[in-house]
Design brief:
By secondary structure, the chain is of the alpha+beta class. The chain is built from 1 helix and 10 strands. The protein has an 8-stranded antiparallel beta barrel.
Length: 199
């Protein structure tokens, strides 16, 4: 009786082996497919990332940087921010203080690289406009008891150097302006030196 039961169970185990073996083979195949799919996905991401890095490097080499922000010092002291729109064109915003007030300027600038045949030394020029608010007590041409608002136009011409080792540039410019609304006068002393962090 025991021998018959033993033989019966051995036969059942033998009969169960083929399906179990097939299932194991399928699981191994599925696992290999998952591994291959994962590797392919990772390779695609790596290639895409390398392509983006190379493209950004090429673009940054064309104009040294995309955006910059820093400080500006002269008769007008304040902050300056710059952003390139293309390889040769940029916009700059300046928030500066003077005469116990402040002045906001927006400029469109055209860039030319390799000034004086020096690598990373660029010169630029541009036009824009400003709006200013100040206390008449600190000026020589207005009623000292009043506060004033003026709107006008600006020009700029300057030169800048972009350091390669660190993301810093320095610039020197002359930015004359002319008030058209609120008061009429020529602002010839708008030149300044700037230091910016670029990225």
């Amino acid at each position: 009786m025991i021998d018959s039961a033993s033989v019966f169970f051995q036969k059942q185990q033998i009969n169960l082996l083929p399906p179990f073996t097939n299932m194991l083979k399928f699981s191994t195949f599925a696992y290999q497919r998952i591994i291959l799919s994962t590797k392919f996905y990772i390779m695609k991401k790596i290639v895409l990332a390398l392509t983006m890095i190379i493209s950004m490097t090429a673009l940054s080499n064309a104009q040294d940087y995309q955006k910059a922000i820093g400080i500006r010092g002269g008769y007008y002291n304040g902050i300056t921010a710059k952003m390139f729109l293309g390889e040769k064109s940029a916009v700059e915003g300046i928030l500066a203080t003077r005469w116990s007030g402040f002045n906001v300027t927006a400029l469109y600038e055209i860039y030319n690289d390799n000034a004086f045949d020096v690598d990373r030394l660029n010169w630029y020029y541009g036009v824009g406009g400003h709006i200013g608010f100040w206390n008449g007590a600190y000026t020589s041409w207005n009623d000292p008891s009043g506060s004033y608002i003026a709107i006008g136009v600006d020009g700029i011409i300057g030169i800048e150097y972009n350091f390669e080792e660190i993301p810093i540039n320095i610039s020197l410019d002359w930015k004359p302006g002319f008030n058209l609304i609120g008061t009429r006068n020529f602002l010839y002393d708008g030149g300044a030196a700037s230091v910016r962090y670029y990225f």
